[in-house]
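Milestone 3.1: sequence recovery, worked example.
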């Protein structure tokens, strides 16, 4: 029941936004405005509630895979990403990323997080044009895009020896949300697009996230997650190579 309530709230917010006319850039042609509104109606409104629900349910500590039809969500986004007219609005090759990631995203949590990140990257560009900058939905989806990148990168770094710490990090994402606002969206996009670069930077990146998390952590389980991270970091990054990490 709680899961249905969360998804219902997300769906209501998106539905309300879908009726808004594009008003941010009056220099755009009417034709371009209509195309962006079409993408909003076809690509953003149908899938964004489930993507937002995935985030909210994870934070609540719920099993999102039992509440959301992952196969249907991935397949639906993939099918729409093939629409050729969308490409002129694709600023960062998000559609290509979605098409490459779709097969694995149905079976792998790691690949699903990457897939949802790129869906939001494309969608946020449309939302930016369709919604007023003060709209809270726009702020939430921007933050969610960064959160998904954090979950993905932290999982990639810690899955071998401290997977439980990632679950706690996800459940308490609000602890490090202020730190994310200080990092430009392009940093996340660059890391998510380049496996080699992400591998090079992720140690320091995860350290920054856990430092922010540690400042707010109070409960025994949360503090245990911080301890697991430190054990991982000290084992993986020696005194010599800690100085070589760049972010």
């Amino acid at each position: 029941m709680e899961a249905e309530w969360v998804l219902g709230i997300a769906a209501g917010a998106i539905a309300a936004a879908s009726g808004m006319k594009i008003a941010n850039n009056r220099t755009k042609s009417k034709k371009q405005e209509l195309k962006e509104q079409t993408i909003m109606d076809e690509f953003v409104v149908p899938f964004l509630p489930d993507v937002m629900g995935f985030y909210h349910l994870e934070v609540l500590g719920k099993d999102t895979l039992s509440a959301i039809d992952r196969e249907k969500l991935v397949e639906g986004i993939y099918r729409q990403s093939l629409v050729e007219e969308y490409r002129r609005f694709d600023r960062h090759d998000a559609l290509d990323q979605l098409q490459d990631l779709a097969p694995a995203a149905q079976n792998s949590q790691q690949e699903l997080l990457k897939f949802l990140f790129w869906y939001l990257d494309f969608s946020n560009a449309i939302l930016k044009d369709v919604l007023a900058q003060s709209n809270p939905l726009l702020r939430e989806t921007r933050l969610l895009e960064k959160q998904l990148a954090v979950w993905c990168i932290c999982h990639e770094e810690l899955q071998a020896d401290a997977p439980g710490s990632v679950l706690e990090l996800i459940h308490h994402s609000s602890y490090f949300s202020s730190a994310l606002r200080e990092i430009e969206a392009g940093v996340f996009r660059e890391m998510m697009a380049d496996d080699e670069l992400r591998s090079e930077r992720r140690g320091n990146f995860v350290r920054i996230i856990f430092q922010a998390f540690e400042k707010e952590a109070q409960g025994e389980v949360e503090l245990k997650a911080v301890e697991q991270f430190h054990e991982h970091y000290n084992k993986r990054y020696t005194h010599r190579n800690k100085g070589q990490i760049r972010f």
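The chain has two domains: 37-106, 121-246. The first helix runs from residue 2 to 18.
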